[in-house]
Amino acid sequence: MPNYTLNINGKQRSVSADADTPLLWVLRDELDLVGTKFGCGIAQCGACTVHIDGVATRSCQTQVSILSDAKITTIEGLSEDGSHPVQEAWKEIDVPQCGYCQSGQIMTASAFLAENKNPSEEEIREAMHGNICRCASYNRIEKAVKVAAKKMA
Amino acid sequence: MKTKINTNLNRRNFLKTSLLASGGMLIGVNFLAACTSETKMPVDIANLNFNDFNAFIKISDEGYVTIYSPNPEIGQGVKTSMPMIIAEELDVEWDKVNVVQGKLDTKYYTRQVAGGSQSIRQGWDALRTTGASAKQMLINAAALKWGVDATNCTASKGVITNTNGDKLTYGDVVKEAAVLEVPEDVKLKDPKEYSIIGNDAVNVDIDKIITGKPLFGLDYKAEGMVYVSVLRPPSFGKKLKSFDASKAKQVNGVIDVVQFGEKLKAIESQASGFTRITDKIAVIATSTWAAMKGKKALIVEWENESKLESTEFHNKELDAILNSTKFNTRREDGNIKNAFAKADKVIERTYESPFLPHNTMEPMNFYADVKPDKIHLVGPTQTPAWAQGMIAAAYKMKPEQIHIEMTRMGGGFGRRLYNDFLLEAAEVSSIIQKPVKVVFSREDDMAAGTYRPAIKYRIKAGLKDGNVTAYHLKEAAMNGNMYGLIPNFFPAGCIPNYKVDTGNYKSNITTGAWRAPYTNFLAFAEQSFFSELAEELGKDHPTLILELLQNVKNTTDKRIEYSGQRMEDTIKLVTEKSNWGKTGDGVYQGFAAYYSHNTHVAEVADIVLKDGYPIIKKVTVAVDCGIVVNPTGAINQVQGGVIDGIGHAMYSDFSFNEGKPDYENFNKYRLIRMQETPKVEVHFVENDKSPTGLGEPGLPPAGGAIANAIHKALGKRLYKQPFVNDLKKSAVLG
Ligand code: FES
Ligand code: FES
Questions:
Q1: Cβ–Cβ contacts within 10 Å for residue B734, how many?
Q2: pLDDT higher than 70, residue B50
């Protein structure tokens, strides 16, 4: 299997994996970064969302072989201690139910808010539309994104 | 109001205490079976034994409280709300309480099932008594130290005070308290005194969730563990004929390919609701991805074993049942035949719904390490006790040789009641003699489901002199039928001539419980039907229900499950809070009220039209769940239930072609998403009644409320879920 050096959460990590292996499984199985979740494997649910060069990206459909120059951030690297404004908002609003989808929701929201400092309700709903929450905690996700936007302003 | 203990709990037998070797007091609780005098309390936290106790509470020398509870968390918040109840009666500050998921091997812990919104209801008395007993022991210990009578001492927020003004903290007296007798009689707080119950407590796992720490079954890893992807028959009715694994074995990372299924078949009689008890193929690899890739490279031949059923066939069978006279009568009052004959008008409608997969966000998975003398299992299951029994039978071991650890669950909704994934993991581990983790892909998860059965209801009502005089509900379902209580839900007792009949077709498609079993669809059918009856009678829908409820208020019929008064209270609250009937132009409202899982709920949906399309703007909900233990968690549950109910009623379709599901993943199977969700506003009926569950009861009325609102907006009645299909046909929804 070929070797790849990846820049993940500011650290160089080296892995050996087949070229077609999705980043998701490299993170979870090889690097023990299990905060990034598996939900569908076909870029439909958003559970596996990470930032690649700051852009929210579905890691289940991103092959490890194309990432050598990329800066990858996972939920574990969003902040050292849960102090990113989006994480703080998530806690304040007590968003999670089962919690499984939430790291993906947080990664989508944080990339969105980095680009859009003062989003309207419609923009928030559109930005978060790609992330499924099977427990349907959508009302609180929406509210937490609003709260996070205020914190980041 | 119940402030005195009136449970049959014998406090001497249900609580035991010990002094921990490392310092601090340990309390063991067994809610369900009395401990014998031989039951030993551990003196070491590493050896908590959940065979004899359901939960342990440690009070440290510093007064910190740790609650070790094996109760599974599936997203209903019980891991937060149950400790809140103990902490309230123990009288400690909530921020000094830590909750730890206990390891579990617990043959007595029958309430180790997270489902049916029962956890809170069943634990209420026991949890309060536990906290209050521990508090009394601490007070008694302080009184002894001071040489005063315990009745002259009080405790609050972890501090004991006597009438002389002396103070001791819980930590100061844990050593002495640990060796005292467990008090026989303790007084529980009046709900007015509560300082933890009724206040918001954030999810106890919040920090781990938002930072992505390992929590869920899928996150679990152990030394030497390999990954397994299982190939199951693609269609219900097919079985394995032969396979060629040579290509699969060439995939990088694939270690082995094995056929299995003997152990599954051996315990088949205990495994109702388990999908595909048949031979399967396991691809074992060094990573999840390699196992999944190896599976795709298998070349397999299947053969027919039983009928290959299609949705068309199911519909025909269900219709045949509805048109037949072969029913089980679940309840019968008066004489419907006479009443229909005398009615001014008879109305009959048929409602239908498809099979539904659960689609928990975290796909099924389980870790197993099967050794000759012990079995270690880790993962998300809603029924560890059942799993332990089956594993013990299959591997001829004693329950104590089987250790099950429960992880947090990425959703349950009923799917994790059935332990097929756990049995698969165990069997593969026993064959290859390695610790394994079986991981379902989404496609596996959707195709190897324990589906909500496809159901049709036919409801007929007789109207006379402006009243509903007869009601006959027929249910035709795949496999299971509604359980015994439901025929005693509303409108039982409200209508003098009443009958509920059920019939079913035995399908080879596995079916089982799905969030709010049976009522999840029945409530829509019933409340849509009552909306039509109200229209026919020229009455307002809530007014008609309120009128009917008067007939059940003073009932002496012990079978009636719901309370006329409590249902009336929720209806009045929801009509007030939603501005029912007063919203003005452009807002169309639909109503539904329903009782299920011991909780009364009423909902009003507000719909607006945008370019002719119905948009669900808002749902107002009134809930009577007794005392609300943790409001923030409770609101989250109700909002989730309502949106889940709307999503499945509106969008989620499922069908079979020759035994094979037509839907495999979220590209085709539709779950509700952010832009389709309304704001859900939740109001609780205030009372001092024992708390009831909230994981499910918000869901059933949601479908009815939106169907009735869509009717107001578009003049169109909906009879079939998901609504999106009919709405598309009439070109009102893209
Ligand atoms: S797992 Fe990647 S989008 Fe669902
Ligand atoms: S909180 Fe359970 S899937 Fe979102």
A1: 8
A2: no
